[in-house]
Amino acid sequence: MSYTTPRSDDPSPLPIGRPIARPLPGSAEPAERADAARNRALLLDAAQQLVREHGVAGLTMDALAKRAGVGKGTIFRRFGNRTGLMLALLDHSEQKFQTAFMFGPGPLGPEAAPVDRLIAFGRTRLLDIEVEGDLHRAAEQNGHFAGGPYALHRAHVLLLLRAAGVTGELGLIADTLLATLSAALVIHQIEVLGYRRERIGDNWEWLVRRVVPPVRQVE
């Protein structure tokens, strides 16, 4: 997966992306590369729909080929095998989340107030975990805190905490908040304890509003 990890001393969120190669003048590669990237994104959108409708178990190479209207060989050439497809899907999901956070509309995007963005951040992650939980849980088991999505999420939360006027050990506060969004914990709460995602989201909002100081009204 191609996550750009921010430095530990840099609170600004960084976009996920791949380096862009520069072809020779007159080459047809840019159009071909753009077409390949667009087709890949369409396949991953179809895969995400399958997961949301039928769970991770419903995402097979055959099912994806049928949903996308392509041959199964195309899927194998793009992703290698089902594991490669799963990793690509997680990367795709994270990229869409990052784009929505940095450039999208409120309440998640930058036009909204910091506290509203922080609440939307948690609720959006909970939705991702509910429909793609196995993927997120697997990602947590391999260097979860060292980089990748966690480092980006932590940078986002730090940015919003500062913007909302929170003081104290912001790094620890961010880690504490993000701990409640652990895929393993959320899946346990939903599947074992019987909580609905909406109720877990309400609890996230309750925590956020107790961490963020209330806005003082100007008299």
TrEMBL record:
<dbReference type="Pfam" id="PF00440">
    <property type="entry name" value="TetR_N"/>
</dbReference>
<keyword id="KW-0238">DNA-binding</keyword>
<dbReference type="InterPro" id="IPR050109">
    <property type="entry name" value="HTH-type_TetR-like_transc_reg"/>
</dbReference>
<feature type="region of interest" description="Disordered">
    <location>
        <begin position="1"/>
        <end position="33"/>
    </location>
</feature>
<dbReference type="InterPro" id="IPR009057">
    <property type="entry name" value="Homeodomain-like_sf"/>
</dbReference>
<protein>
    <submittedName>
        <fullName>TetR/AcrR family transcriptional regulator</fullName>
    </submittedName>
</protein>
<dbReference type="InterPro" id="IPR001647">
    <property type="entry name" value="HTH_TetR"/>
</dbReference>
<feature type="domain" description="HTH tetR-type">
    <location>
        <begin position="37"/>
        <end position="97"/>
    </location>
</feature>
<feature type="DNA-binding region" description="H-T-H motif">
    <location>
        <begin position="60"/>
        <end position="79"/>
    </location>
</feature>
